[in-house]
Design goal:
Blueprint lengths: L11 E5 L4 H12 L3 E6 L2 H14 L5 E5 L5 H11 L6 E4 L17 H23 L3 E5 L22 H19 L7 E5 L14 H14 L3 H4 L1 H6 L8 E7 L3 E8 L5 H21 L1
């Protein structure tokens, strides 16, 4: 049975971070809408368990699993090569990392930045030619955290910063606005930038255990469920965004059903600077593979 109001029959959707709280619920919504899914995850065990769970709920679901470790460019390139052979209509960048141990990756940047910005942008550029052929769409899961920091040309990946909110916010800001600029004049493929608001998922479990134990149940009561949060991303599957538009909860970007609105948090000039920096960062790995 199709998700009410959303028809994705015949569409193939590739989604990163499918095993997370929002990812699992989004997979259910996509399958209910009739989509075929490609699950892109770092944990083969979790991905296989999710596939089994989804098949039990949707016996006729078409599911493919591809390993993807976003902070490892070798894995990213291998996944891109496999994705290039598949008929992808929608690519959803849902995976994210917030407060995790930090290090510099083999690509020469902060791992949080690579997971949230560099690798998703690289995958988009790699797959853009085939997405154009199919009139496809890229969906970037953004965050209200992008407002927490302004770009710094001397510290693109915020490797010198320590505050998780700033590092994560910078990465989301870089991905969102680089993609806005990339798709600004695009005519054959489209972009939707969506954000889920605030919900209880693994990304919020980075607090010390005693703090997380205190906030876990109040968060369940106060904020939206992962399934409701996933509705913004689902809407992006059928409704593209124009330059600096995004789709998210209608009340204060935190609660409520999805609504599209204009962003005022980045100037056109800064957006172009972000795009140029991202293009420069992926130039070498893109040319290599």
């Amino acid at each position: 049975m199709k998700q009410q109001g959303i028809d994705l029959c015949g569409k193939t959707v590739a989604i990163t971070g499918s095993t997370g709280g929002i990812g699992r619920e989004l997979c259910r919504l996509l399958l209910a809408a009739g989509a075929r899914l490609i699950l892109l995850d770092r944990s083969a065990e979790k991905s296989a368990a999710l596939q089994q769970m989804l098949k039990a709920e949707f016996p006729y679901a078409e599911l493919t699993r591809i390993p993807l470790v976003l902070d490892d460019m070798t894995s990213v390139k291998a996944a891109c090569a496999q994705l290039e052979e598949l008929p992808i209509d929608i690519l959803i960048h849902n995976a994210g990392a917030y407060s995790i141990p930090r290090y510099i990756t083999s690509a020469g940047c902060d791992n949080v930045f690579q997971i949230n910005a560099l690798a998703p942008y690289y995958i988009t550029k790699y797959l853009l030619p085939q997405l154009r052929e199919r009139g496809g769409r890229v969906i970037a899961v953004g965050s209200i955290a992008h407002r927490y920091s302004k770009t710094d040309p001397n510290d693109v990946d915020f490797a010198t910063r320590r505050a998780s909110s700033l590092v994560y916010g910078n990465a989301k800001r870089r991905l969102m606005f680089a993609l806005y600029e990339l798709f600004r004049e695009e005519t054959n493929a489209s972009l939707a930038v969506c954000h889920p608001g605030i919900t209880l998922t693994n990304i919020t479990s980075h607090y010390p255990k005693w703090i997380f134990a205190l906030i876990k149940y109040p968060m369940k009561v106060i904020f939206m469920s992962p399934r409701t949060a996933a509705l913004s991303i689902l809407q992006g599957c059928t409704e593209p965004c124009r330059y600096h538009e995004w789709i998210g909860p209608r009340w204060f970007d935190i609660w409520g059903l999805p609504k599209k609105r204009q962003l005022r948090s980045c100037t056109d000039a800064e957006c172009h600077v972000i795009y140029e920096a991202m293009e420069q960062q992926i130039k070498e790995p893109l040319n290599q593979g």
